[in-house]
Amino acid sequence: METNNNPSFRDKPVNLDESGNRKWIRAQQPKGKWYNRRTIFAWFCVAFLVLAPIIKIHGNPLMLFDIANRKFSLFGNIVWAQDTFILALIMLVTVVFIVLFTVVFGRLFCGWACPQTIFLEMIFRRIEFLFEGNHRGSSSKQKEGFARTLTVIGKHASFVVVAILITNVFVMWFTGPEKLLQIITSPISENQLGFLFMFAISVFYYIVYAFLREQICTFFCPYGRLQGVLLDSKSISVIYDYKRGEPRGIKDGGDCINCGQCIAVCPTGIDIRNGTQLECINCTACIDECNTVMKKVKKPGNLIRFDSFHGIEKGIRSIANARTYAYSAVLFILIIVLGVTVSNRSSVDVSIERMPGTMCQMIDSVTVSNIYNVKIINKASSAKHITFKLVDIQGGVLQFTNDLSTLESNKAAESVLMIQLPKKMIKTRSTDLKIGVYENNELVTVNTINFIGPQN
């Protein structure tokens, strides 16, 4: 439903003028129950972002993406890079869930849980309010000269400090708190690359939150563009009840008095009365402000509310349609496949590969050896005591340069393996061997390798 008299409002983002130049959005600070709820939820999300790499479950971080060691801790469960199928399933489940969530609830994630929105609206915007006022006749506009300069310096200095703190939280998700503390406390000369990376990330965050701001949602984020193909008439989002509000104006009969306060508090500067727009992040600021105005003019609240186009038209809010059923079914199947895959995952992953550049070696006239690199990962939450044995050949000898009989939980180990076989047992130039990994005399996994014999 478009109620704007100028239908060209959809031709360009609201933060650009007719010449394509930037128009700064200086939103007022909203007040109301939805803003209070969003504040509480936002600080819960901030606490999760800060504490997730610190909190330990069974000795593992709640969340950690240790790319350097190619392992990921997801809610205390270790997933290794070797578990590519599981990682792919997790990503697929996440994508389908986001699609289903968007079909049902629109861009609720953007306004309530997106780190970009949380940091901008709950931290940087509040710092701006502290220094410059609430833009309802901002105190900063009344300042001149040196006072104005001090205000700008103080605001941007605070932005820099917060950007550095966010950078440290971001890095901690990939290094863990112990490694981050080591980087911070060590001299810059010992970790120049790490400090350069953190400096670049800090500059990036400062530019995003001090200058780009809502343009990240408008121009850079692809999620907003997905609304056009994901939302339908039954999707729940922040919507203006045009049937009740029109025609606008105090004397025109509709409940909307055309005060413009819903625009004043919008962090992306849109007019929600024009209908669903890609800039809308469902932050509910317009709901609170409109309810405040409705209370003052003694009219019913929720002129702007969480509803759907179908709900406005028919008076019945329903999310049931073919797409929600289809996406739900796909998500349910993927979750089952993921659960089965994780439950059937081997607790020990072994990789045995021939050492590059080597062939066979004659130990003596009757014994032939091959050399291999062995990498083994214990994916279980407890230590394992294992042995290696040749499965289908008797009389072979396995010699390791490092002891692999005891594997610590969620740890990887490497060694060089020399396999010696009697020459008389090698009938061909290339022989397939099966090496079994046993725990308490029970076969855990089997690897097939190629043993090269001498030329006849």
| Broad structural category | alpha+beta
Please tell me what the overall shape is: elongated
In terms of per-residue confidence, which ranges show pLDDT below 50 for 5 or more consecutive residues? none
Number of helices: 15
> How much of the polypeptide forms β-strand, as a percent range?
15-25%
Biggest pleated-sheet summary: 5 strands, antiparallel
Walk me through this protein's architecture.
With 456 residues, this protein is an alpha+beta fold. Among the domains are: 26-82 and 114-213, no CATH class; 348-452, Immunoglobulins (Immunoglobulin-like, Sandwich), CATH 2.60.40. 41% of the residues lie in helices and 20% in strands. The protein contains 15 helices and 16 strands. The chain has helices spanning 33-51, 84-105, 108-112, 115-132, 139-142, 145-175, 177-185, 192-212, 215-220, 227-230, 242-245, 261-264, 285-296, 309-314, 322-343; strands spanning 56-57, 60-61, 63-66, 71-74, 77-80, 237-240, 304-307, 348-354, 361-362, 367-378, 384-390, 397-400, 406-407, 411-422, 430-439, 442-452. The strands form five sheets. Strands 8, 9, 10, 12 and 14 form a five-stranded antiparallel sheet that branches. The chain has a four-stranded antiparallel sheet with strand order 13-11-15-16, with no helix packed on it. A three-stranded antiparallel sheet has the order 3-4-5. Strand 3 and strand 4 form a beta hairpin. Helix 6 (145-175) packs across helix 8 (192-212). The longest helix has 31 residues, at 145-175. The radius of gyration is 31 Å and the shape is elongated. It starts with 32 loop residues before the first helix and ends with a strand. 22% of the residues are buried. The mean pLDDT is 88.
